[in-house]
Specification:
The complex is a heterodimer of chains A (about 230) and B (about 290). With about 230 residues, chain A is an alpha+beta fold. Chain A is about 30% helix and about 35% strand. Chain B is globular and about 55 Å long. Classes of the chains: A alpha+beta (about 230), B mainly alpha (about 290).
Chain lengths: ~230, ~290
């Protein structure tokens, strides 16, 4: 498969999560991938298009993968008893979901590509469910990232320029928060860039509001910690 | 990254070392982690009780009555530990197959092995659940050491990656529960792993039911066997981390047909294909919003 193992598993990932069955990778992990899209949009979407790759496409139905992804989009955690009724709940909430089988290339077999929309907002997320309910998000808004949702994660899209990461890091440091891991990619030199920063603690609302006011950043999100460990 | 070698050489009890090390990394309070582990043992206990009491069929109808069936049957072998461990393990996995609430340990498909083996042994010996908190932390530490070398999912490494990990974790936990050394606990894990290498993931219809439910009964007993050997000072000839490496390499050699895709093995028997066709027909008839709802 050629994918190196990277997402660290805490003690509570190993004995956990507490979840609705039947599969940690195809149900709980799928739910968490949906949750990432939910949080990055900021609320439940109106429309979603979900591309399922390899094992997610082939054996997803039997594992409730579709239900779990929709449950995540609605903001439900993997142990939410409403998960098995997610399609009915989605209908009631006015969420339309379309599923497609896709070939995403040389990625983990349990990978989904999610596009969600609400009013003028649109978010795309691609991530893999790597086992035991652990996920690895690899793309947000079409740009490469690398985070697991095990820690609060700051995502910021901005116009590539000298010193941007230093300014962001300085803001985080001034808030008294430590950076655990950081990935940054850009579409082109001087073009759109996206940084994903895993934090040891959530950023304060003031620091977040400050980052949101920057004219050269057009999209700022703080993804809450999705796992217990 | 923690290795099994680190765990084996940790001061006893190894669980205390695992907890201190993990909390240093996550920043969590050790008392909080222990409290959450205690709550999860309670969730395991609840899933066992629901599973032993229910004979409701799963989504496909292939499983659902096995745990209760065994639990209610006469103990023909006069082997109460064996029967308890098997029944507990299947109870959890049948709950899982009904989309009930379980604790993934480390995965949902292998969720019955640790409760079956560890809670089964504890109940057999009359030990309270409070005594299981630290052994459960060691189980998690063993799982972490394995997951540092390979993905713990059937799609990536076959069933060996899932049930092998759960059996290894359970075996180490039983050894610590019964007063064995960290070295014995890790050798129990290693013995469980080396006797699981090669096991493929070929679920009928792609559902976590056949062979998964009965497999958890078998591997909960497998974990007890490994603990028994290690408590008698028997050791794994191949060092534990090398065994993990071997399992990872066998996982990479496994063709995709035998890694959860339901394209080989039991899933492609005439009966397996018939189940898949029947369920597919049911889904097409029902449409998206009518998918299996329990």
């Amino acid at each position: 498969m050629g994918v190196a193992y990277t997402a660290p598993m805490s003690l509570l990932d190993m004995i956990g999560p507490v979840m609705v069955g039947p599969s940690s990778s195809h149900t709980a992990g799928a739910c968490r991938l949906g949750l990432v899209a939910h949080h990055l949009l900021g609320e439940a979407p109106r429309r979603a298009t979900i591309g399922l790759h390899a094992s997610f496409a082939k054996t997803g139905r039997g594992h409730g993968t579709h239900l779990a992804l929709v449950a995540g989009l609605l903001g439900y955690a993997p142990d939410d008893p409403r998960l098995p009724r997610a399609f009915q709940e989605a209908q009631a909430a006015g969420l339309t979901v379309e599923f497609r089988d896709v070939d995403l290339g040389d990625v983990h077999p349990n990978t989904a590509h999610i596009e969600v929309e609400r009013e003028t907002q649109r978010v795309t997320v691609q991530g893999s469910s790597t086992g035991g309910g652990v996920i690895l998000v690899t793309h947000v808004q079409g740009l490469g990232v690398h985070f697991s949702g095990a820690a609060p994660t700051l995502l910021m899209r901005y116009t590539d320029a000298v010193g941007m990461i230093a300014r962001i890091a300085a803001t985080i440091a001034a808030d008294g928060v430590n950076i655990a891991a950081l990935t940054c990619t850009r579409a082109a030199r001087g073009g759109q860039a996206l940084v994903a920063i895993e934090l040891d603690a959530p950023l304060s609302p003031e620091a977040l509001a400050f980052l949101r006011r920057w004219p050269d950043a057009d999209w700022v999100r703080l993804l809450p910690k999705l796992m217990d460990g | 990254m923690t290795t099994l070698h680190d765990l084996m050489n940790a001061p006893a009890p190894a669980s205390a070392w695992v907890l201190a090390r993990d909390c240093a990394e996550t920043g969590l309070d050790p008392a909080e982690v222990r409290a959450e582990m205690r709550r999860r043992i309670g969730e395991m206990r609840a899933s066992i009780e629901r599973g032993l009491a229910s004979d409701a069929k799963s989504i496909t109808g292939m499983v659902g009555w096995n745990a209760k069936g065994l639990w209610d049957a006469p103990d023909a072998l006069n082997a109460p530990l064996l029967r308890r461990v098997q029944a507990y393990a299947m109870a959890v996995n049948e709950e899982n197959a009904r989309m009930g609430r379980i604790v993934a340990a480390p995965t949902a498909g292998s969720a019955g092995t640790i409760p079956g083996a560890l809670l089964g042994v504890a109940d057999h010996l009359g030990l309270p659940d409070e005594r299981l908190v630290d052994p459960m932390i060691l189980a998690a530490g063993v799982g972490q050491a394995i997951s540092g070398r390979m993905y713990i999912s059937g799609a990536a490494g076959g069933c060996q990656a899932e049930i092998g990990s759960s059996a290894a974790m359970a075996a180490a936990a039983i050894v610590e529960l019964l007063g064995g050394t960290p070295r014995a606990a890790v050798h129990a894990a290693s013995l469980a792993l080396m006797n699981t290498i090669g096991l493929v993931c070929d679920p009928v219809g792609g559902y976590v039911e056949v062979p998964c439910v009965s497999r958890n009964a078998f591997f909960a007993v497998h974990a007890v066997s490994a603990a028994q050997l290690a408590l008698a000072q028997l050791e794994s000839f191949i060092p534990p981390d090398e065994v993990v490496g071997a399992m990872a390499s066998v996982g990479r050699l496994m063709p995709p047909e035998l890694r959860e895709t339901a394209e080989g093995g039991l899933a492609q028997t005439p009966t397996g294909r018939a189940v898949a066709a029947r369920m597919e027909g049911r889904e097409e008839e029902g449409g998206m919003t009518e998918l299996p709802v329990v």
